[in-house]
Amino acid sequence: MACCEPELKESAPPSYRRALVGVLLINLLMFVVEISVGWLSGSRALRADALDFLGDTATYGLTLWALGQSQAWRLRAARIKGGSLLVMGLLVLADSVRAVLGDAVPPGPLISGIGALALVANLTSLGLLVRYRHGDANIRSVWLCSRNDAVANLAVIAAGALVLVSGSRWPDVLVAFAIAGLFTHSAVAILRQARREQPATSSCCGGQ
Fold it and tell me: Which residues form the Cation efflux protein transmembrane domain (predicted)?
């Protein structure tokens, strides 16, 4: 029964908790900024990136809750995070499909400008988390989310430039599709690691 209790020796240090709180606040702020601008401008790429920030905010909140919990509960939290990323990917995919049927061209300079702001936010987050990128499914999921955000931001910046040069909405739409794929890839990676970590918990705690 002892192994089913929270294992204090695996608790994250206070510095990790502080880093998570800081990154959570950064992501929440950027979600508000990007979803507002994305909705007003009609940019699917910004809206997709905003959902990415929202998903990460939820991920960091779950990770903070999971710290100090038993291994079984940490695995449950990882599965919830993986599932939420999958749902986000489907939402972005649906929004992108709707954009294919439209003809409005979002403002390229605005897309790139907000994308650059988001990149600065994510690089700051990565700087706070880089010391903790190796760990269990929960800790690794946090690193994956921030890393993927930075990659997505670069794509958003490029989309804005291409929209400006081409006068077409397609770069914006295609980047939104790519972000949907990134959501799905991350979800699968997190769920697979949680599954790999499951046997030890099942044998020790009866699969609880």
Answer: 23-195
- Tokens 């400006």 correspond to what residue? 164
**What's the predicted TM-score (pTM) here?**
0.76
- Which domains, and CATH codes, for the chain? 18-205 (1.20.1510)
**Residue 203 CB: number of other CB atoms within 10 A?**
10
Alpha-carbon span 142 to 66, nearest angstrom = 12
Distance between CA 60 and CA 29 in Å, rounded? 14
What's the number of CA atoms in the CB half-sphere (13 Å) around residue 104? 11
d(CA 30, CA 101): 28
Top pLDDT among 203 and 123 is at 123
Cα(62)–Cα(140) distance, integer angstroms? 13
pLDDT of residue 137: 59
Q: What would the pLDDT profile of 186-202 be if each residue is shown by its tens digit?
A: 788 878 877 877 755 44
